[in-house]
Amino acid sequence: AGLFPWSGGAWVNLKTSAASSLAVSEDQIFCGCADGLVRVFRPTDLQYITTLQRPHRLGVDVTQNPPHGHLPASSEAQHPDTLALTFDPQGQRLTCVYSDHSVYVWDVKDVGNVRKLYSALYHSSCVWSVEMYPDLPEPSSACLPPASFLTCSSDNTIRLWQADPPALCQNLYSQDLLRILYVGENLQAEGERSEAAGADGKAGFRVLAISPDGQHLAAGDRCGNLRIFGLQFLDELVKIEAHDSDVLCLEFSPPSTGVKLLASASRDRLIHIFSLEKNYSLEQTLNDHSASITAVKFTGEGPEVRLVSCGADKSIYFQSAEQAEDVLMFSRRHHVVEKTALYD
């Protein structure tokens, strides 16, 4: 990649695989390049001045803070590409947008000593689900701070945020982002380029659900897998190859039902019922629907527990639970057909 002046003549080798953006001021030309690079040149003769500090590496653990104001440097780490730049001449601030959808604002008054003023790390692909952490009767048993919520995306990450973060910044990278949970080995491909897709080209998480006691997070992905994470440390406890297609909805039974169950429903037209008390073992599979299932809900109070589901087949199914030995079994009690597909 090279930088050419408008008048023609001289050119500069940027020493990068690609360059995608420019920001020009009276004293500098900023050129956004691959791998997080921003080269700085003098506009009069294209004399090289410096290269700005890179942003975070891909796959960064935001809980591991380097010394304040200094991002860790690594020649081997992969960084997001610099896609867009804008320069504020009055405040001498350079705003950079990177390929993983992160945003940084740099103070470039002194290009020899650039400081980061602000940064935010967002999902780099479609966000499919948002779940608020519940208010628990016993706050001391909560795994997450108040006003926390979780999101999942096609970028193969689950992110933990805090809607009302403390005045003191939680980490150096993003004030309201508490944690990023990466799933997959190649973070460059899976986290930012979504190359680790299934046979149909799909990747990432589709839906989240938090257990009523606030201890577990259930996550369904677009390949049909169901994962259970402990919210205390966000560690993976269970992985189940549950469905043959996207997991579209997850539902924990509320405490009022008197049972501890998890229902998962998918584009493969199946509903699976798992028992929390048996380490999420499969208790039952329901196959009444003839198309994608878009919503499933537990209702009623023990021992009269019911399960209601709807889907793209325009149907609503009502299932009632009956105790059979040591297993709670659901059976169809009522079926309603509407004129259009139902989503919730």
Automatic annotation (TrEMBL):
GO terms for biological process: negative regulation of canonical NF-kappaB signal transduction; positive regulation of JNK cascade. One of its GO terms (cellular component) is cytoplasm. Residues 127-344 form the MABP1/WDR62 second WD40 domain. Pfam families: WD40, WD40_MABP1-WDR62_2nd. This is WD repeat domain 62. It comes from Iconisemion striatum. The gene is WDR62.
